[in-house]
Specification:
Distance between the termini: 32 Å
Number of helices: 12
Strand order of the largest sheet: 5-4-3-2-1-9-8-7-6
Number of strands: 9
Structural class: alpha/beta
CATH superfamily: Aldolase class I
CATH architecture: Alpha-Beta Barrel
Oligomer: single chain
Mean pLDDT: 93
Radius of gyration: 17 Å
Low-confidence stretches: none
Shape: globular
Helix content: 40-55%
CATH topology: TIM Barrel
Strand content: 5-15%
């Protein structure tokens, strides 16, 4: 099974088992780089897919919570190269891992070397918020050679024709942003989200995961009627920041 197929299979397996796929996000090396892999393993035990954020100095799609976690991770010396080395040394994590990174660290690393090292580290794919579809051909081709996913994001503001192209280009799953804004929102999700998710689902034969602003069990239950999985980021990072048990929090989201 190719790496991107592992991601889809994990989410499809959750749906087949009668539950919503759970995709927790945590910033690599946060809150403590020395305990990072242990934290990931604990989270992976209750997750279907785990999204790891590569810390970056200008995380434009992220709110204050993830911006802060990125800064703290960078201050500890966390880098993309360190992340891949940690996962390569850790062996099996238990759930497929995808990296969320802005484009600059990927360019600095080099696409070919990055893809090869990701395979060695057991990474299954990437989410790159600042890589437009039209500018992603080189990176996508390199990932394709190694069976890795390039997961595309769509938003409520995405025009219909562009949504079709983004969905067709995505592997692993389609990331459906639920709000018009950055991560970490605490307001109720917009009323149009169910119809928006149904529209995306009709376009693809891979899973659709809803993210941004998800922090309550009721939201997970509601979104799960229209998406295959939910992505929980800022709310989980807040739990880590407070020193709370991330596993108990994630289990509470399943109701």
């Amino acid at each position: 099974m190719k790496p991107h197929e592992r991601v889809s299979a994990a989410l499809n397996g959750a749906v087949a088992a009668g539950r919503v796929g759970l995709v927790p996000y945590l910033t690599a090396g946060y809150p403590n780089k020395d305990t990072f892999i242990d934290t990931v393993k604990k989270i992976a035990a209750v997750a279907d897919v785990v999204e790891i954020g590569v810390p970056f100095s200008d995380p434009m799609a992220d709110g204050v919570t993830i911006q802060r976690s990125s800064r703290i991770a960078l201050e500890q010396g966390v880098s993309l190269r360190w992340i891949l080395a940690e996962f390569a040394a850790a062996g099996s994590i238990g759930a497929p891992i995808v990296l969320m990174s802005y484009l600059n660290p990927l360019l600095v690393y080099g696409y070919a070397a990055l893809a090869e090292d990701c395979v060695k580290a057991g990474i299954c794919g990437f989410i790159v918020p600042d890589l437009p579809l039209e500018e992603g051909d080189d990176f996508r081709a390199t990932l394709d050679e190694h069976g890795l996913a390039l997961i595309q994001l769509v938003t409520p503001a995405t025009p219909d024709d562009r949504m079709v192209r983004l969905c067709a280009a995505s592997k692993g799953f389609v990331y459906a942003v639920t709000i018009r804004g950055i991560t970490g929102g605490k307001s109720e999700l917009p009323a149009e989200v169910p119809a928006y998710l149904d529209r995306i689902k009709a376009l693809v034969d891979i899973p659709v995961c809803a993210g941004f602003g998800v922090r309550q069990a009721a939201q997970v239950e509601s979104l799960g009627k229209h998406a295959d999985g939910v992505i929980v980021g800022s709310a989980l990072v807040e739990q880590l920041q407070a020193g709370n048990d991330p596993v108990k929090f994630l289990e509470s989201l399943r109701g």
